[in-house]
Amino acid sequence: MEFAIxxxxxxxxxxxxxxxxxxxxxDSAKSEAFKKYQLELTKGLGLPTYVVVDPNAPDEAIAIFFxxxxxxxxxxxxxxxxxxxxxx
Length: 88
Prior knowledge:
Elements: H1 10-13, H2 28-42, E1 49-54, E2 57-66, H3 73-82
Antiparallel strand pairs: 1-2
């Protein structure tokens, strides 16, 4: 999705701040800590997982999108629903 879908959704993605959580990190301690955070946040370890969080409450998921979306339509709808209004 990152290479096929994300470029087409750039205007929607620009309304979010991206943070990547690498649960397959070569440092096993980091990998385990990241997996624990993902499990606590999303109640799942599936990949890919996209999460919308409030920066003031990063331990609470506002919305979660599990899995890939080959067409991008469902993911675009997810982004639109949770984009909010841009700050001025």
